[in-house]
Design goal:
This protein has 197 residues and is α+β, with helices and mostly antiparallel strands. The chain has 2 domains: 3-66, 434 Repressor (Amino-terminal Domain) (Orthogonal Bundle), CATH 1.10.260.40; 79-193, Immunoglobulin-like. 22% of the residues lie in helices and 29% in strands. It has 5 helices and 11 strands; from the N terminus they run αααααβββββββββββ. Helix 2 (21-28) crosses helix 3. The longest helix has 14 residues, at 3-16.
Length: 197
Amino acid sequence: MDCAKIGRLIAQLRREKGLTQKDIAQALNISNKTVSKWECGLGCPDVSLWADLSMILEADMAQMMEGEITLNRPDTGNINKSRFYVCPSCQNVLVSTGSSSIFCCGRKLEQLALQQDENTPRITVEVIDVDYFITIEHEMTREHYILFAAYVQSDMVFLTRMYPEQGAAVRIPYMPGGKLYLYCVKHGLTVYSFPFL
């Protein structure tokens, strides 16, 4: 570990959060001098403190230990590059429009990969008023269900969270030219292009 590099990063992150060395010390139950030593590069945080320190500074622990936070490239605004993530612990659904590091429940999440195979659910699409009404041929039991449907078009993502034992159908605004993503908890992510024939 490069203590000088780590110390500079801790000081930078602390100042960005508007915290003093005393604030950090009190939160970690250590002395102000210890935080000062870190920031001067005269030592590194003890292994037992890293998790709490990363939470206080709201930074990735692994990157903090390297002394460098890797910045993502700026979002180019291309919503068609939407990426979906699902936390295996709490089932949170997260979306990004470019490369990013997504964490939930203490774990780094991997982008969902598209699965197009015999398990791809069949869908029926009707236009009702100003909406698409989409019926999905899929069971909705506690063990096997569609977790979310997301319609991506132009500059918007319309995401609907779904739950076991509800109907396998969604309504989304009528916007031709988009893509519909469905995520099955057993078989993964599938995509359909609109207008759907």
